[in-house]
Prior knowledge:
The protein is mainly alpha-helical. It folds into two domains: about 1-140, no CATH class; about 150-330, no CATH class. The protein is built from 13 helices and no strands. It has helices at about 1-25, 35-50, 55-65, 65-95, 100-110, 120-165, 170-180, 185-205, 225-240, 245-265, 285-295, 305-315, 320-330. It is elongated, with a radius of gyration of 26 Å. Keywords: Membrane, Transmembrane, Transmembrane helix.
Amino acid sequence: xxxxxxxxxxxxVLGIFSSVLRTLVIPRPxxxxxxxxxxxxxxxxxxxxADRLHxxxxxxxxxxxxxxxxxxxxxxxxxxSFMIGYGLLEAAVSGLDVHEGIHEAGSSLFTLGFASSRxxxxxAIDFCAAATGPIVVGLQIGYLPTLYNAYQRRETQVTLLQTxxxxxxxxxxxxARYAQVGLLDDIGDLFRGWEQxxxxxSETHTTYPVLIHFRSPKADRNWLIxxxxxxxxxxxxxxxxxxxxxxxxxxxxxxxxxxxxxIADIRGIPYDVDPRPDxxxxxxxxxxxxxxxxxxxxxxxxxxxxxxAWPHFRGRRVNYETLAYRLARDIDAVPAPxxxxxxTTLPVWSPLTPxxxxxxx
Length: 361
């Protein structure tokens, strides 16, 4: 019986050490394991409540604490698991029962020492437990600035996009606003900036998956919807204006769907790695025409008709639409146009194009 307790205790301690290292120390994507289980468990009651609310702002307020709370619960879960694991080890190598072993392990883990039995057989385990507590807490404290720095870098570009696409962002709205103010010659800079943004998000959101659930400060902004809007703008630009420079447009599209695929890999979401350009997309042709009309109404120049451009746009959107829709549903992103359905029925928020107030004559 004591051998079994020792084996179980060792498995728990080593398993949680592995979780701590993979989450806080190793700078590469690793399977979620314990942290993923905690995040799913924490999110369920928040989502249960959010699903029963009707306002988008109300849902956003309820879901905003999910990621921060899961970080706190993860730390507490690690410490509790260590206490149980060390307690089982102490019960296995001494005459203590399981309750007494956990009591002594907790005393050592939190460096209190009030329950030390001063048994030689327990000294090594007590020392290991006493070192584990401060190390885990210290690593978590160092982890938070890294996490929030990555969050701020992500949200800076999302906030800047609001001036170019409104809130929530929408691909046709980006092109409409650039055309309205005569900045289409500079739109390549937007795509270049978002290519770099995709590289940063691909690295940070796979290394620290909890960032996926960190929400923007306002309900009408969301990192995934912003990415989808930029990808749609790039796909529309390539479809309607084949004579314009394509390098930055294509690189932004490539970086965007690679970023989405990296995130899908870490979350275990399946996808077609090589879709055909004529594969169906969920965006309807009628919705596509509404976006095209928004662009035309604000003076966007088109070298192709909507009917001619549709196959080219669809052939590019097929690379990222499925993953964008799935992630938008999973994180309850703001329901912007062309962003797919959510878990509950919500009205679509469309950005309003500013009225051109420039003086004439």
